[in-house]
Amino acid sequence: MLTKEEIKHIAELARLDLSEEELKVYGEQLSSVLKYIEQLQEVNTEDTEPTAQVTGLENVLREDKVENWSEPEKYNAISQAPSLEKRQIKVKRVL
After folding, report:
1. Which of 11, 38, 47, 69 is most buried by its number of CB atoms within 10 A?
2. DSSP states of 26-81 as a string?
């Protein structure tokens, strides 16, 4: 069981301003989660291979190929662009 001071410290780290009642409720909940983790740590996983995902799905990638467009195709694409800059299609920044 976590002490009240430990629960207050965890709440402070998470920038949570908890009332006394919330400290009690969340402290009990967090203590039960930690107790469950202790139980999981008792399981022998020595012969178990680490797994990142279990679905068997893999990324499907394709090779990037440069395809030259004819002049009419280039003109058609550029004429439909909402915004241009130096004969290039200008798009919104993606961060």
Report:
1. 11
2. HHHHHHHHHHHHHHHHTS--TTPPP-S-SS------------PPPHHHHHHHHHT-
pTM metric for this prediction: 0.47
CATH for the stretch 4-41: 1.10.20
- Report the candidate in 39, 37, 7 with the shortest Cα–Cα distance to residue 23: 7
Closest to 21 measured CA to CA, from 13, 35, 11: 11
| Contact (Cβ atoms closer than 8 angstroms) between residue 87 and residue 78 | yes
Closest residue by Cα to residue 81 from 90, 73, 69, 72:
90
The share of the chain scoring above pLDDT 70, in percent, equals 100
